[in-house]
Design brief:
Layout (H helix, E strand, L loop, with lengths): L5 H9 L5 E6 L5 E4 L5 E4 L2 H11 L4 E5 L6 E3 L3 H11 L16 H13 L18 E5 L14 H16 L3 E3 L8 E3 L3 E5 L7 H4 L5 E6 L4 H11 L11 H14 L5 H13 L7 H10 L9 H8 L1 H8 L4 H15 L16 E6 L6 H13 L6 E4 L9 H5 L13 H8 L4 E5 L6 H13 L1 E3 L5 E3 L4 E6 L4 E3 L7 E3 L7 H19 L3 H7 L3 E3 L5 H23 L2 E4 L1 H12 L5 H23 L7 E10 L2 E7 L1
Parallel strand pairs: 1-9, 1-10, 4-6, 6-9, 11-16, 11-19, 12-13, 13-16, 20-21
Antiparallel strand pairs: 2-3, 4-5, 7-8, 14-15, 17-18, 21-22
Helix pairs in contact: 4-5, 7-8, 7-9, 9-10, 12-13, 12-14, 17-19, 18-19, 20-21, 20-22, 21-22
């Protein structure tokens, strides 16, 4: 025998102890409730669910206060309309043309609320020799929309809730008829407010917790989603021909992938699947299309598979001297494209496509690898979303990412991160220098890495299930000096053996997340996604310099239509300067090249612009103090 949800059982018991009830939370969904025979059936909406609880207790009618359409009666039977009309003193039809024209919607609600709370008594009849009031309840279905600001009520709004407070404090329960032999139940003519959140009602009204019961309706549990999925998937074309074990497998699969969604959302997913004539085996596509709003899945295209076949060479040509890091990142991309991300933890994918934590010295290619991965997967280097986490070190920085909560400045704008992912659900999201972010922000990443979703300040859910998350950090290169408090010392240098350097950096990362931040669980969520980059060696430094020189030559050709040649003496000087100090990695090489070649070249071209077809040869580079000059020939 199926048990009713906890919120529904609480509603049933509250009818006898509270004259007013607030239902908040998941109030716009469908619900599964047991029938009298113990079988569970879906209920179309909350009004039907409330009426099921009321009718079982002998209520005769439910008045639904609708400011837009006028009060209406549920169920729409003659007996219910008669009871509701008797209590309100006017016809209750739901037809706006029969509503009072001399009263505003708020005035009508105030009068209806008081009429239901303190109903008139029917005359005695032969069937009911004892006069009694009709057992009627009232539901303010959209109570969240009654006020613009619950803490700054208008005069009319204030009058409604004062009436509600008066009714709550003065209402008295009366005996209700029961089956033969059962003691009579004491019940109220109940007032029910339906809101998205209980804070949308005046706070002073909510203080009467002994007279006003708040019941939260949660999102459906796994069991409820599974039962809904079993009912909805029966309409897919291959359901009748599928073995029972396959039906059960894909029912569980859809229920697992829709954690946090409503039953209505499951119905929408099933509708998408029916319209696309999706088979059971492809139900994941319908769930993904509903979550992110995009039908096509770039992770499963043949074009991506082709690019991934040659990806090691492609990435290695851009990120020089980091072969291990490139292979590690490529493993993640292969895992994402095959749909096996998180497969060891759950058979159903609800996490982001992948997460990388790129650690190591500055200028060694961490950000460049993120850009290269973006180009590889999405075909455009600019398709990645980048956040410089040094800008998010303040206590309130999390509000920038997910949006300010209701009532605060900027609430309507949403969050920078949630807005960006909502607009571009298939993307690589780069969080540069994550160790500089405020620790409160890290809690948001816990939810993203575990559940693949994040709720913004407006209450909307954004899904990260199609994203790759990349974090970069210089953690472990420098550490606190125990002999000089407040100062740092190098933890690893270019001369530290490679394996030892990797071990020291990993230990420093672990220490930072466990001891300093108290967030070891975040480290666990990253799993094997921590990639340590090596220092740039001299050979790699020469290759980076060569790559940068070719970029300069290409720029001169594009801007002037001319040819730039760097002679052997000039190249030797630039090489010596570039590899003299590799502690700053590729960025340091770029700085040397800019100072020793680009700046003096700019001076020369400004004074003597090249014509199309010209050739300019840099024969030598000379240093004069802090400035470089070029020896050139045309």
């Amino acid at each position: 025998m199926t048990t009713a949800p906890a919120w529904y059982r609480e509603l049933q018991s509250a009818l006898a102890i509270a004259p007013q009830i607030v239902l908040e939370g998941n109030v716009h969904d469908r619900y599964f409730l047991p029938n009298t025979d113990g079988k569970e059936t879906p209920v179309a909406n909350l009004i039907d669910a409330i009426w099921r609880a009321l009718s079982a207790r002998g209520y005769e009618a439910l008045v639904i206060a609708d400011p837009a359409q006028g009060s209406r009666c549920h169920p729409p039977t003659e007996q219910a309309r008669e009871a509701a009309s008797f209590v309100l003193g006017r016809p209750v039809t739901g037809d706006p043309t029969t509503s009072r024209r001399d009263a505003t919607p708020l005035e009508s609600l105030r009068e209806d609320l008081l009429a239901v709370a303190f109903p008139p008594v029917r005359d005695a009849t032969a069937d009911e020799p004892t006069p009694r009031a009709p057992r009627v309840a009232l539901v303010a279905e959209l109570a969240s929309r009654l006020t613009l600001d619950p803490e700054r009520l208008s005069e009319a709004e204030h009058a409604v809730f004062v009436a509600a407070e008066q009714a709550a404090l003065a209402a008295r329960s009366t005996p209700a008829p029961t089956a033969d032999g059962d003691p009579p139940r004491q019940l109220f003519n109940t007032i029910v407010f339906v809101v998205d959140r209980d804070r949308e009602l005046p706070p002073w009204l909510m203080t009467h917790d002994d007279r006003l019961r708040t019941i939260s309706i949660p999102r459906p549990s796994f069991g409820e989603r599974r039962r809904a999925a079993a009912s909805l998937l029966k309409n897919l074309p291959d359901w009748p021909s599928s073995p029972v074990e396959h039906q059960e497998e894909y029912t569980r699969r859809l229920a697992s992938q829709t954690d946090g969604l409503t039953i209505r959302a499951l119905a929408s997913i099933a509708q998408l699947a029916r319209e696309a004539r999706t088979n059971l085996a492809d139900i994941d596509d319908a769930a993904r299309a509903y979550r992110v709003g995009v039908v096509d899945n770039p992770w499963r295209t043949e074009d991506l598979r082709e690019r991934l076949r040659d990806a090691e060479a492609t990435l290695g040509a851009r990120v020089l001297g980091q072969d291990d890091a490139v292979r590690k990142a490529l493993d993640l991309m292969l895992r994402a494209s095959t749909g096996l991300t998180g497969a060891h933890g759950s058979p159903y994918g609800t996490r982001p496509r992948g997460a990388l934590f790129l650690a190591g010295p500055t200028g060694v290619g961490k950000t460049e690898l993120a850009k290269a991965l973006t180009t590889l997967v999405f075909g455009d280097e600019d398709a990645y979303i980048r956040f410089d986490m040094s800008e998010f070190s303040a206590e309130q920085a999390a509000e920038r990412l997910i949006g300010a909560p209701p009532g605060y400045v900027g609430f309507s704008a949403g969050g920078e991160l949630t807005n960006a992912v909502r607009e571009r659900p298939f993307s690589l999201v780069l969080f540069d220098e994550i160790d500089k972010a405020n620790r409160n922000i890290l809690d948001k990443f816990l939810q993203i890495l575990e559940d693949g979703r994040l709720t913004d300040g407006r209450g909307a859910t954004v899904y990260f299930t199609e994203c790759v998350l990349v974090f970069t950090s210089n953690l472990g290169i420098w550490v606190e000096d125990p002999d000089a408090p407040g100062k740092r010392r190098a933890n690893v240098t270019r001369t530290t053996p490679r394996e030892e350097a990797h071990e020291r950096i990993r230990e420093a990362i672990t220490d930072h997340f466990t001891r300093h931040l108290g967030r070891p669980e975040l480290l666990n969520r990253l799993g094997d996604g921590i990639v340590v980059f090596d220092f740039i060696d001299e050979d790699t430094g020469r290759r980076i310099l060569d790559l940068m020189l070719r970029n300069v030559v290409a720029r001169v050709e594009r801007e002037y239509g001319a040819t730039l040649i760097v002679g052997p003496d000039a190249l030797a000087t630039l090489t010596d300067l570039a590899i003299a100090n590799l502690d700053n990695g590729g960025r340091g090489i770029g700085t040397v090249l800019e100072s020793a070649l680009v700046n003096p070249l700019s001076r020369h071209l400004f004074a003597a612009p090249l014509a199309r077809g010209d050739t300019l040869t840099v024969a030598a580079v000379h240093r004069h103090g802090q400035v470089f000059d070029l020896e050139v020939s045309s």
